C-alpha cells in the first residue's frame, strides 16, 4: 500500500524540476493538481508529490502495493532520457546482480512456475490478458512495457520428466541506467506476482 512508502521519496520527487522529470520519464505533469501522470503496465497513475500518494486513475484507488509504488517513484526520480537498447539481459548480467539477486532477493519466478509450470496455454492466456507481446524465446515468452523506458520479458519452459519447469525475467540492458538493484528487485516481485495470478 502506498501509505507504507516512506514520505521521503515523495519529498525527493517534490524537489525535482517537473519539466526534467517528464523529459526523462516520458510522463506528464499537472501543475494545478501538483501531480504526475505515468503509464505503468498499460494503466495510468497519478502521483501526488505533495500529498505523498499514488492513485490508479481507472478506479480512483490508492491500493497500490509497496513494490509497485516504489518502482513508480524511483522511475520518476532516476530514469534517464536514453533510448531502449533492444538487447535482453538477465538479472545476473546486471553489475552486482550475481551477488544481489539471491537469498531474500532472489527473483520470485517460482510464483509463475507454481501457476503455469505445466500449463503453457494458461500462461499465454494470462500474459495476453496483461497485453503481452509474444517473443520467440523459451517454450513461450512475452514482452511487457512496464513503464515508457522499461520493457521486460517473461519466459517459461514447461516441465517434463527430465527437467523441472523454469521461468525467467529478462530486462532491456538499459535498466542498469534507470534503476538501482533493490528497485529492480521490487519490479520483479510485481511482475512475478501479477503474471503468476491464475488466468480466468
From TrEMBL:
It holds the Pfam family DUF3786. InterPro entries: DUF3786. Residues 17-193 form the DUF3786 domain. It comes from the Bacteria. This is DUF3786 domain-containing protein. It comes from Candidatus Desulfacyla euxinica.
